[in-house]
Amino acid sequence: MKRTRRNRWRAQHHWLEGLRRRLSPRIFFQRHAQVALDSLGRLYRNWLPSLMTAAVIGIALALPSGLYLLLENIDRLSGSWDGQASLSVFLRDNVSEKAAVDLAAQVAAWPEVGGVKLVTPAQALEEFRQHSGFADVLDTLHENPLPAVLIVTPAPEHTRPERAAGLQARLAALPETGLAQIDLEWVQRLAAILDMTRRGILLISVLLGLAVLLVIGNTIRLEIQNRREEILVTKLIGATNAFVRRPFLYSGIWYGVLGALIAWVLVQAGFWLLAGPVSHLAGLYQSAFRLQTLPVSLLNLLLWGGISLGLLGSWLAVGRHLDAIEPA
Amino acid sequence: MIRFDNVSKRYPGGFEALRNISFNMQDGAMAFLTGHSGAGKSTLLKLIALIERTTRGQLFVDGQNVSRIGKRRIPYIRRKIGFIFQNHHLLFDRTVFDNVALPLIIAGYRHQDIARRVRAALDKVGLLAKERLYPITLSGGEQQRVGIARAVVNKPLLLLADEPTGNLDPDLSREIMALFAQFNDVGVSVLIASHDIALIEQLDYPVLTLDNGRLAAS
Question: Which of A147, A158, A160, A129 is nearest to A88 (CA)?
Fold first, then answer.
C-alpha cells in the first residue's frame, strides 16, 4: 500500500519533471547545439561523400548567382548613362553658324529643355579627328562634311522616354532641323534585354533550386537508411518523431550552408578569372569600368537560400521515410 | 501497474498470437512470464511497450488505458518503461556511456544530470570501469548488463525483459535475476519473459504461463 502511494507520487513527479525539462530554454538550446554539432561531426567523418554532395549543391547555387551578378554588372555599366539621356539635333547644311547660335538660345528657353550645347562643324570635325583614328583620311577631304549639332539635354522632369519623344517631335518640326534623334536609345533596348535575361535567370534559379532540393532529399534518404537501427532503438526507448527527425534536419541545414559557401567560392573564383580580361576590354574602350565582386548581401542570400533548401529537402525526405521505420 | 482486460492480438494474415488475456499486476510487483516458444510471450511484452497494438480488449499501463492511445503519445508511455531485449539492441557506433545516456538525452535531461545518472546506473550493474569502451569489446553478459543499465537509467516505473538470460550461462543468469530483484526492492515493477523454468522455480515470484496464446491457470 505504502509502495503504491510512493509509485503514484513518482508517476506524477515524472510527468512534472518531464514538463519542466521540456519548457527549459537552456536545455532546449543545449540539446539543439549538441545535435547540430553531432550532425556536423557526421558529415566530417564521411568528408569525401559529404563534400561531393555539397559541391553539387554549390555548383547548382553558383550558376544562378554568378549569372545574376554578371547581369548586375552590365546593368551598372548601362546605368551610368541613364540619367543623362540627350537628344542630338543635326541641323541642315544651309544653316549658318550665327543662325545655329540663335537657335540654340531659342531652344534653351523651352521649359522642357535643361540645357543646349552647340557643336559647330569645325568642333565636330576636330573631335572626330581625335577619337576615330581617321585623322589621315579626314585631311584628304576638301570640305567639312559634318553638320552643326545641338546636343539638347531634357529638363530633369522630361527625361522619361515618352516625354523625351515629345521633345524629339518638337525639335524635329523646326525648319532648321535635318534630323533629331534620341541618343542612347540602345540603352533602353539593353534595359529591355536585361529584363528578359533577368526573367530567364529567375527560371533557371527555380529549376536549380528544385535540383538542390532533390539532391538533399536523396542524400538524407540514404542517411536515414544507414541509421535505421539507431532510429529503431531510439524509438523503442521513447524518442518522439521530433527527436528522431532533428539530426537529419540539421544535416540538411549543414549541406545547405556548405553548398552556399562552395557556391560563393566558385562565383568569387569565376569573377577573379574574368576581372583581368574585363578591365583590359574596358581599357580599350577608355572606360574605368571594373567588375564588381560579390556583395555581402549576395553571400547572405546564398546562405539563407542554402539553409532553406537544405531544411526543406531534408524535411521532405524525413517526412516520407521516417514514419516507415517503426519497431516491431 | 499492468492490467489486461480480455486482450487479443491478431497479426495481419490472421495469426492470433494472444487470445482473451486478462490479468492484473500490482504496482511494485515482480512476476515471470513463461511458456513454450511461440506461446506469445514476446507479443504480450510488445503490447505493453506499444510496439504492437491490441486487436481487442483493454490494456492499462500505470492506470492509463493505452489500447487506443494515439501515435504521438506513445513515446511518453515508453519513457515510463525500461525494456530489456534478448539481443540487447545496443548501438555499436558509440560507447557504453553514450548507449546508457540515450534515454536521458531523449527525455531532455541536463548535461550534468546525465553524467551522474549514467554513472549510477553503470555502477549498479558493475560496469562503471568500462564506460569508455565500445559494446563490441564486451562479453555477452556485459552487453546484457549495459542493456539493463540503459533500461533503468531514467528510473522507469516498469521494467520489461524479454528473455534477458537467453544467451547466458546459469551463473550469469542468476546474477542478472538478482539485479532485477534489487530494482524490484526499490519499488520498480518487473515483468520478465523467460523459458528458463529451472531458474524461475528457484525464485519465489508469481508466474504467468502462456499456452498457445492463452493464459494457463497457475
Answer: A147
- How far CA B10 is from CA of A273, B4, B47, B215, in Å, comes to 70, 15, 12, 16
Residue with grid cell 528473455, as numbered in its chain: B163
**Domains in chain B with CATH codes:** 26-37+65-216 (3.40.50.300)
- The complex's ipTM works out to 0.88
Say what the pTM is.
0.74
Taking CA atoms, what residue in A is nearest to B74? A238
Residue keyed to cell 527527436: A243
Contact of A42 with chain B, judged by CB distance below 8 Å, is answered with no
Strand B189-193 vs strand B158-162: parallel, antiparallel, or unpaired? Answer: parallel
Q: What is the pLDDT of residues B138-166, one digit of tens each?
A: 998 899 999 999 999 988 999 999 998 87
Size of interface A-B (CB pairs under 8 A): 85
Could you say which architecture CATH assigns to the domain A86-183? 2-Layer Sandwich (3.30)
Sketch the domain layout of chain A as residue ranges. Answer: 30-81+189-321, 86-183
pLDDT tens, residue by residue, A49-100: 899 999 999 999 999 988 888 888 887 776 655 555 678 888 888 888 888 8
A-chain residues within 8 Å CB-CB of B105?
31
Judge whether A113 and A103 are in contact, CB under 8 Å: no
Q: What residues of B are in contact with residue A244 (Cβ under 8 Å)?
A: none
Q: How many CB atoms lie within 10 A of CB A106?
A: 13
Task: Walk across the sheet containing B56-61 and list its strands.
Answer: B16-25, B2-10, B56-61, B64-65
